[in-house]
UniProtKB/TrEMBL annotation:
This is Uncharacterized protein. InterPro entries: ATG11. Residues 123-148 have a biased composition (Polar residues). Residues 107-148 are annotated as: Disordered. GO terms for biological process: autophagosome assembly; autophagy of mitochondrion; piecemeal microautophagy of the nucleus; reticulophagy; ribophagy. The lineage of its organism: Eukaryota, Sar, Stramenopiles, Ochrophyta, Bacillariophyta. It comes from the Eukaryota. Transmembrane segments: none annotated. Residues 109-122 have a biased composition (Low complexity). Coiled coil: none annotated.
Length: 148
């Protein structure tokens, strides 16, 4: 049975694809974490603006309203907005992904040999643009331009 020889022939491509899969997953983790942080920051700044607007209302028009407005019509009229405290899922996978560096080996179907691209700077890290581009580079519908 010679089927195991197919694995030997395909191993260099499979290994390069494995390394690229690691980089892709790391880029996803960085992007999702960055997007989550940006969302929490945006919600915090929105809350600050809402607190100011409510305080302004209460100090101006609100002080002329009768107690019925605060007790019957809208009991929460004098309360502050809720603090958003998300419970994000654990990213355990990110702690277990090995650090393999930024070099992006040629993808499956490349005509280059493995030895010709390693350390040559050719096709260096297509995922790096996704990592350094922030959350939007993986979530935007428009293509991102890489910075060399």
């Amino acid at each position: 049975n010679m089927t195991h020889l197919e694995h030997v022939v395909e191993f260099p491509t499979a290994y390069n694809d494995f390394l690229n899969e690691i980089r892709r997953r790391k880029a996803y983790g960085v992007a999702s974490s960055s997007l989550s942080s940006a969302m929490v920051d945006k919600l915090a700044s929105m809350r600050i603006a809402e607190v100011r607007a409510r305080e302004k209302f209460l100090q101006t028009s609100g002080r002329h309203l009768t107690p019925a407005f605060f007790e019957i019509f809208m009991p929460t009229l004098a309360t502050l907005p809720a603090v958003y405290t998300p419970q994000l899922p654990s990213m355990v996978e990110m702690d277990t992904i090995p650090d393999i560096g930024p070099l992006n080996l040629e993808p499956k179907g490349s005509t280059m040999t493995s030895s010709s691209s390693i350390g040559s700077g050719i096709n260096d890290n297509a995922m790096q643009g996704n990592i350094s581009g922030g959350a939007s580079s993986l979530t935007d519908d428009t293509p991102q331009q890489q910075v060399d």
